[in-house]
Amino acid sequence: MDASTTQHAGQIAQGAPHAFHDHGDERDLGQASWRGFLRRCPACGTGPMMKGYLQVRDTCTVCGEEMHHHRADDGPAWLTIILVGHLMAPILGWAFIEFRPDPMVLTAVFGIGTVALSLWLLPRFKGLMVGFQWAKRMHGFAPDVPDPARKGA
Length: 153
Prior knowledge:
By secondary structure, the protein is mainly α. The protein has one domain. The protein is elongated, with a radius of gyration of 20 Å. 20% of the residues are buried. It has 4 helices and no strands.
């Protein structure tokens, strides 16, 4: 590691009883993100990531990988809104021009479709973000960097 990386790592691990060590093993970003999208553990791909609709398990039930470090926050909701909006708006315009349905029918069909697609995508995007964070070793997913959010725990 160069001097700037070492200095940055020292800033991250302030107060840590041990030094920062990056073991150098690359984590496959695509594979981890895909496993997350499938709501599976990004490490093993077997264990379920979710403990409910949106709650991420603290640890994988199969491999024991800690997942409590994730900080998905509002990211999955933003991704869902952007994707669903960009999919449904042009389809809505096309359906209105092509078929000229009654406005109430159009509203009902697209309202139900929008809600259903949003509910389906939201947990998958949350898993994708957790997988991304795991692959990039963000927010405590690095093996030797303590999670600052868990100081008191």
